[in-house]
Amino acid sequence: MSEYNQTDSLDPSADFESALDTEQTEIKSNITITESAQGYLADLLSKQDTDGIGVRIFVEHPGTPRAECCMAYNQPGEEDNADLRFDYENFSAFIEASSVPYLEDAVIDYNKDRFGGQLTFRAPNSKVPKVGADASVEERINYILQSEINPGLAAHGGMVDLLELIDEEGVGLTAVLKFGGGCQGCSAVDMTLRQGVEVQLKQQIPELTQVIDETDHTRTENAYYK
Fold first, then answer.
1. If DSSP codes are grouped into helix, strand and coil, which group holds residue 135?
2. Is 137-213 a CATH 3.30.300.130 domain?
3. Which residue pairs, CB below 8 angstroms and at least 24 apart, start in 42-51?
4. Distance set, CA 148 to CA 101, 141, 154 (Å)
5. Which of 56, 136, 195, 224 has its CA 20 to 30 A from that of 209?
6. Contact between 33 and 145 (Cβ < 8 Å)
7. Is the pTM of this model over 0.90?
8. Is residue 221 helix, strand or coil?
9. Are 159 and 198 in contact (CB under 8 A)?
10. For residue 43, what are the β-bridge partners?
11. Where are the domains of the chain?
12. Does residue 94 come out as left (phi exceeding 0), alpha (psi in the -120 to 50 range) or beta?
């Protein structure tokens, strides 16, 4: 089964309820797989001729504008001990633990039509940045970009996203960013980067040693300042 990706029609989100039970925290999810979707998936899995095959549900690039909700076959033994497991009548679904908070209120449904039908995956919280005490540097950067920096850049029709983190010996941790919208090709983008974005990121994430821009600024058709 190739991964089921439906980013545009997925409104990316499973409930991350934490309950402290003396020594351990229990993670729960409120993701919903409707009866029609259960029937469709059970039929699809039965055709794989593999006993115990299930589905694995996860989010790629969670908490960012690039978030994609995915579903893939889960061969017996491929599940992780940290996965949340849901047992349905004819199959089991495994939710990647790190994806749980981004799948809050997610709904997987199957709607029949004259052409057969369509499986839909609506997850309204998959693009919402979420950080906790154990959040990674990447998650923290994305949180700051999406919740604090991009709302300001949006006034000029701009945005900035994290492309990658590079940990280079002798240099340290580098955040590689890409600007878009009104910030791409803008004559003031260097000032925005050095006096705004970089300062804010370094103040809140002391592990970060440098911030670089890999945007193609030769494209100026949408630039706020030419």
1. coil
2. yes
3. 42/88, 42/89, 42/90, 42/91, 44/1, 45/73, 45/90, 45/91, 46/90, 48/1, 48/73, 50/75, 50/76, 51/76
4. 20, 10, 11
5. 224
6. no
7. no
8. coil
9. no
10. none
11. 4-122, 137-213
12. beta
Nearest to 175 by CA among 153, 193, 195, 150: 193
Token readout for 66 is 């690039």
Residues contacting residue 130 through CB under 8 Å, at least 6 positions apart: 16, 62, 63, 101, 102, 139, 143
More confident: 119 or 147: 119
CATH, domain range 4-122:
2.60.300.12
Query: pLDDT value at position 11?
Result: 36
pLDDT band at 17 (very low <50, low <70, confident <90, very high): very low
Phi-psi region of 224 (alpha: psi -120 to 50; beta: other; left: phi over 0): alpha
Number of Cβ within 10 Å of residue 134's Cβ equals 6
Structure tokens at 159: 């945005």
Do the Cβ atoms of 103 and 14 come closer than 8 Å?
Answer: yes
Q: Is the dihedral of CA 80, 144, 141, 221 positive or negative?
A: positive
Q: What is the per-residue pLDDT for 26?
A: 65
CA distance 158 to 43: 45
Tokens of 206: 């002391």
What does the block give as tokens for 167? Answer: 């940990």
